[in-house]
Amino acid sequence: MSDNPIKPPPPKTEGSLDAPMRHPIAWRDEAYYDLAAVEKEMERVFDICHGCRRCFNLCDSFPKLFDMVDESPTGELDGVPKEKYAEVAEACTLCDMCFLTKCPYVPPHQFDLDFPHLILRYRAAKRKANGGEFVREQLGRTDRNGRMAKPVAGLANWATARENTPLRGFLEAIAGIDAKAELPLFHSKTATDRARTAPKADAVGPSAGRKVAVYATCFTEYNDPKTAEAALAVLAKQGVEAKLVYPECCGMPQLESGDLADVAGRADRVAKVFAPYIADGYEVVALTASCGLMLKFEWPLLVPENQAVKALAASTRDISEYMVGLSKANGLAPGLTPIPGGVAIHHACHARAQNMGAKSAEMLRLIPDTKVDLIERCSGHGGTFGVMKETRPSAVKVGKPAAKQVAQKADETLCSDCPLACKHLGQLLIAELPDGSAQPAQAHPIEIIARSYGLV
């Protein structure tokens, strides 16, 4: 018998005011990977979605589905071949916005809809039946890639630069990585390397005595270590003792590809590393929204019996969420100065999915005399989704409305809870800004706070 068998539908609760809930992910049950059963469930869910259509303006999955139905011989879902379901699944970035912000039929409603986790199950079933997609899975091996690139960071960045058209064209031809997509940079000194010289906590800071284990995340560790430097400096100024901890990647790329056993293994290993810190009174802070979502919400659904994972989920806060909490509990250290030119803050989907509110915008509004504009539209990036030639057109299509909003705000700085979203929007902005306009500088929200303090 499986440790987490597929759950029966919840009791009928039409009209209930209960909060949305999610079932544990039954990845250890063989029935979970029954492709015929998965497609039957997709048929049930897609038919409900077709009758509702509230999600028409989210990701590209829903317009694709509705167009298929409308163009079918019957004008109903029964006229859409099941082979076409793959196109709907491919367009989903697992952003969770349909589940959290639009769908009226999520559990405990009797219809029991969880569109993103249904797509996750479909991908897991397809992966088990056919194997993974080689290039995407290699891109998702972020720790290996980061370690390999570290000694030759300059060469790696030159080879993958968008301006290096011959090599990027070759990469597109052999690997399907879109030559027009900006790729993350690598660094010879990782966040862990730089943390060795981080400032000590201010003994008279307003939050002196608090302790935090900062989960670097793979992107910060290898691709944007200045985010960790900024976070450690800002926390030290508040009097918080902060230690950078990076055991390994949270597994978001593997989740997106349906390799759930791999993600569960990461959850177990990472939780074991953080367990002694939590037992010693440390809180946990994540520097990237997607990773915070994994630790708080996805991991406990994959291994619901794992007490260390539960403790880690309960202890984890997003860096902006944590800073807002400090400000409310003790006030922030004095010294914040205005940021000229205004800041556009993109509220990433994986931050919205954490149900904590727009904490990055709330944090930035603590900076005096600074214009802060909140953008709550999907960037469209979705990890490898925004990089692969097959799916990048959808990523651009979905991200354009957000880029237009950023352009309209005319702020000098653009930031996001998700660094990949920020990079993607920055690239889309080129087509939206008037000729001759300067592109806004890009940064993580905590880097803006560090800049306001004069720490960077």
From TrEMBL:
<keyword id="KW-0408">Iron</keyword>
<feature type="domain" description="Cysteine-rich">
    <location>
        <begin position="212"/>
        <end position="296"/>
    </location>
</feature>
<dbReference type="InterPro" id="IPR004017">
    <property type="entry name" value="Cys_rich_dom"/>
</dbReference>
<feature type="region of interest" description="Disordered">
    <location>
        <begin position="1"/>
        <end position="20"/>
    </location>
</feature>
<dbReference type="Pfam" id="PF02754">
    <property type="entry name" value="CCG"/>
</dbReference>
<keyword id="KW-0677">Repeat</keyword>
<feature type="compositionally biased region" description="Pro residues">
    <location>
        <begin position="1"/>
        <end position="12"/>
    </location>
</feature>
<keyword id="KW-0560">Oxidoreductase</keyword>
<protein>
    <submittedName>
        <fullName>Glycerol-3-phosphate dehydrogenase subunit C</fullName>
        <ecNumber>1.1.5.3</ecNumber>
    </submittedName>
</protein>
<feature type="domain" description="Cysteine-rich">
    <location>
        <begin position="343"/>
        <end position="419"/>
    </location>
</feature>
<keyword id="KW-0479">Metal-binding</keyword>
<keyword id="KW-0411">Iron-sulfur</keyword>
<keyword id="KW-0004">4Fe-4S</keyword>
<dbReference type="GO" id="GO:0004368">
    <property type="term" value="F:glycerol-3-phosphate dehydrogenase (quinone) activity"/>
</dbReference>
